Amino acid sequence: MKFSNFLFPASVSPAHDFDVIQDALQEAELSEALGFDTIWLAEHHFDGGCAYVDPMTFATAIVARTQHIRVGFAVAQMALYHPIRLAEQIAVIDNISRGRLTLGLGRGTAYNFYEYRGFGIDPEEAHSRLLEAEEILAKVWTAQDYRHDGQYWQIELPELRPKIYQQPHPPMIRACSSLESTLEMAREGRPFLMNVQTNEVTQQRLDAYRQTMAESGYDDETMAETVQQCWAWRNVFVAETDQEAADIGIPAFQNMRAHLNHARQRLNRPSELKAQAAAKPGNALHTVEHGLVYGSPETVCEKLAPVYESGVGGLILHFRLGSLPWEATSESMRLFTAKVAPEFTASV
Length: 348
Fold this sequence. Notes:
Blueprint: E1 2-7, H1 17-34, E2 38-41, H2 55-65, E3 70-73, E4 76-77, H3 83-97, E5 101-106, H4 113-118, H5 126-140, E6 146-149, E7 154-157, E8 172-176, H6 179-188, E9 192-194, H7 199-215, H8 220-227, E10 231-238, H9 242-267, H10 270-279, H11 288-291, E11 292-295, H12 297-310, E12 314-318, H13 326-340
Parallel strand pairs: 1-2, 1-12, 2-3, 3-5, 4-5, 5-8, 8-9, 9-10, 10-11, 10-12
Antiparallel strand pairs: 6-7
């Protein structure tokens, strides 16, 4: 099982933005030094939930500061992008990094309606925009005289420059928050990113994913290779003792959730809040019981064992929980790589 770092730092106030962004750059450099497989970048706007907001710009800074670690998006909110502009940006970053980029794609947040309004996008269009943009991206890096006449974009492109570094293009992976979207990826033989879920749901989804791939005609070798490219997200805090981890990690996690929930209450319109309440999102992401893996290295090993047994290819680990101080974050990362990761793999 591969381990990666989800670089998702919150900034509770504009006055803190500079310091949080600088800490995030340090965290990226430490991630490479500790041997993590990938740095994943988030995208959220206008609420401080993700301090650097623009993963394309921040990925460029990271690949310029590192040599070996991969950089991925978890995820680029496709409803907010023109696909040709995104294709150019990805091509530039892929060249700068010498092929270390993974393109994680999603429709965008389901409940931060203010993000769509800020970009002048109807949230009802988010999923269909994602599908059309994916279709364009899958072709545009290798096409000559590309033409596309779609619902949202009409494109006449002689040639995309610069050429992409990875051939035929960087790995593209879809974020899936529901079982049906997960099974859609299985039928297409594509890997997926799983948001925070209970261990039971994680196992059930991977089992259903494998079964659907088999029913769709994929052989055992292809299924095994594809599952190894799938990733599951977990929030994590490691300390020397369970009590220390609880004393530091739980308040940080709760404050992070409170900040994000307050932003929605403050920035969403009343009608949007009603739509959010009617959707009844699952609580795995929101509760300490299901949303946070914390404890001593031994305890964290026990809590992660069921995820390892599910067979998922890698974990996206979110270490900096909200405004958790950099010192606590970096120590948690060091303890994880020294005392947790070796229990599941020969190296991080």
